[in-house]
Design brief:
Layout: H1 2-23, E1 29-33, H2 59-73, E2 79-83, H3 93-103, E3 106-111, H4 118-126, E4 129-135, H5 140-146, H6 152-166, E5 171-178, H7 186-194, E6 200-205, H8 222-237, E7 242-243, H9 251-254, E8 271-274, E9 279-281, E10 295-296, H10 302-308, H11 322-325, H12 330-333, E11 341-342, E12 347-348
Parallel strand pairs: 1-2, 1-8, 2-3, 3-4, 4-5, 5-6, 6-7
Antiparallel strand pairs: 8-9, 9-10, 11-12
Helix pairs in contact: 2-3, 4-6
């Protein structure tokens, strides 16, 4: 009983802390979507990336922007998170990130891993990359079908092995998106990854956004969700570096059991993002709507936007829905994540009440 009480106290303390962030947000994670181009066509992609995208900012824009943020806001407790599309498709990738490193930015990236070989791994190390998460979304046949890329699994695994051989990174992580179709492969994936000297395995559920909305057959059932979180909890209790992502309030049974922290949607509180076109938004996973664009790095000073903008994210989503307002967990859930909120119907697309708690 004391253990449950400790969780309750921590959740209450976090709720109060979050309300304080509404008035005094703290930028910690700055995402750069360097490109919307991708050499894979994942059927779950929230940004619907692919080869047809061509909108990219020139490297001098990023150099100026990164210098400006450093001068205005400092770099203490700030992480630069590089994403896409596939960031390594940019020919000037190492120019941009080399400059970021020279300024003192700590940075990591997400990648599909297919463009990484020994030479690329060495360049990533030279440019100061600290962390990387490479996507493996099932065993070979499942992964290649999910990402609609023949040979993608093997190339991604080769990329991970190149990173491990290179060494010197703070964390080499594998991320797996779990669907109704691949959840039965978790045990085999665990055995496979246990033979690779990676630092962690991040296991997350497919989200009802982007292209995934076109494939409802891939969404997890209530039984799938309990299986997923029970799997992660079991591995963590055995000391394995397996974790869930930042999304969603999971209730007393699973909060702090499947990740190192309690749930907190940080969009506009800790997190801001720059899209491939230069728009300033909160989280890249949130539905791209004109009213969520806070400004542009092509014409606005980011520090001013951070201080004066993001008002719609510095509040609780539970205020917008009567079911959420009357929920006994609203102070801990807050209406759940912005990225999975249905802004037209004012309700969460993902809610674990009556599934996990």
């Amino acid at each position: 009983m004391a253990y449950i009480w400790d969780k309750e106290a921590c959740l209450d303390e976090l709720a109060e802390y979050r309300r304080g962030l509404f008035a005094k947000p703290q930028l910690r994670n700055l995402f750069l979507e360097l490109t919307a181009r991708c050499n894979e066509r994942c059927i779950h992609c929230g940004s619907s990336c692919g080869e047809y995208h061509s909108e990219e900012l020139p490297p001098e824009v990023y150099r100026r922007f990164l210098e400006e943020v450093k001068n205005d806001m400092g770099l203490s407790h700030k992480m630069l998170c590089i994403t896409g599309g596939e960031p390594l498709l940019r020919r000037d990738f190492f120019d941009i990130m080399g400059h970021a490193h020279s300024l003192g930015w700590h940075w990591g990236m997400t990648s599909n891993g297919t463009l990484i070989d020994d030479a690329v791994a060495r360049e990533l190390k030279r440019c100061g990359m600290g962390t990387i998460s490479v996507s493996i979304d099932g065993l070979e046949k499942t992964h290649d079908a999910f990402r609609q890329t023949n040979g993608g699994f093997q190339r991604a695994m080769n990329g991970i092995e190149a990173l491990v051989r290179c060494g010197g990174f703070k964390e080499v992580q594998i991320t797996t998106v779990v669907t109704h179709r691949n959840i039965g492969e978790l045990d085999e994936l665990y055995k496979l990854f246990s033979d690779i000297d990676i630092d962690s395995w991040r296991v997350i559920n497919i989200e009802p956004m982007g292209r995934a909305k076109l494939h409802p057959e891939l969404l997890l059932t209530p039984e799938d969700y309990r299986r997923l979180f029970s799997f992660i909890r079991e591995k963590r209790r055995n000391g394995d570096p397996v974790c869930y992502g930042c999304s969603h309030f999971l209730g007393r049974e699973f909060e702090r059991e499947v990740r190192d922290w309690y749930y907190l949607c940080t969009a506009g509180l800790y997190t801001a993002s720059i899209t491939a076109s230069g728009d300033i938004i909160a989280c890249l996973d949130i539905e791209r709507r004109p009213e969520f664009v806070q400004g542009s790095i092509l014409r606005d000073r980011f520090s001013t936007v951070w201080e004066q903008g993001f008002k719609q994210f510095r509040r609780d989503l539970s205020e917008d829905n009567e079911t959420c307002r009357s929920c006994p967990e609203k102070d801990h859930c807050h209406g759940d994540s912005f990225h999975s909120w249905n802004f037209d119907e004012h309700r969460p697309e993902v809610c674990f009440r009556n599934i996990l708690f």
